[in-house]
Amino acid sequence: MITSNSTVMASLLLLFALFTVTLRLTSAQIGVCYGMEGTNLPSQREAIDLCKSNNIKRMRLYDPNPDALEALRNSGIELMLGVPNSDLQNIANNKDIANQWVQKNVLNFYPSVKIKYIAVGNEVNPVGGSSQFAKFVLPAIQNIYQAIRAKNFQDQIKVSTAIDMTMIGTSYPPSKGSFRSDVRSYLDPIIGYLVYANAPLFANIYSYFSYKDNPKDISLQYALFTSPNVVVRDGSRGYQNLFDALLDSLHAAIDNTGIGFVKVVVSESGWPSDGGFAATYDNTRVYLDNLIRHVNGGTPMRSGPIETYIFGLFDENKKNPELEKHFGVFNPNNKQKKYPFGF
Length: 343
Prior knowledge:
The chain is an alpha/beta fold.
């Protein structure tokens, strides 16, 4: 068969266009969590410039650091802005304080800072070490939401909270996912609010910790997205990686409350490169590279992209235990990428 040069060129241009679109879609789903618990971290301006130069389009901040917010102005980076657990009680108990928080940390920066989400509290658990904050989470969410709604930004800025996977009681098989009975009275009203406000639930999902806690039953390949075959059969669905199985167990847990549909945003995921079992440079490189590639494709239970925030931007040397110091994707001392892949 004879093919003209123009036909070949058109085909190449089409392939390039499809490749470019795929890259943009993938990069658009990935953000990075910017924690600041380190003694050797670059300035906030340097950190934001580093993200811009590496094509990072989304960021999670755990508190409204004013220098970081100033540096984010006109950066084009979409932001998940955190309300620290320590602020929950005052915001829950006083609408004026909630309004002041929103004015100071949101309205004074928006829209030059592209605030997309507000995460009210992080990993608050009614039966865990953070139980003292639990009763304040929903009223704090509601007061922040009302302050946002008063300015008619409720469709642009979604207000939610971030949970961890210890809330899940049953996770296997994923379709049988359910929340623990002792957290339902805490979570169900939050899910009801999220349905009402059309807001997603934020979830910190770490394949690493599930693997570390149960290496006899979970293979490293399954945890690192490198299994060549389906590992878990769940009816008509097949799971080749642990990340999808964990996320779908959360999807099922939400659905199984019967309250309504709620989307999930993965507000943290990562793998430590040192400091503990299976915490190696190579494992982290493989996990994050595969995660970045994977999140555009959805899970067996839910099609479509998975908005995901990698933890974290830098290694943070003030964190404990030792494992927690080694989640960064950049070296704080020289601002160089620790891993060869890009965003």
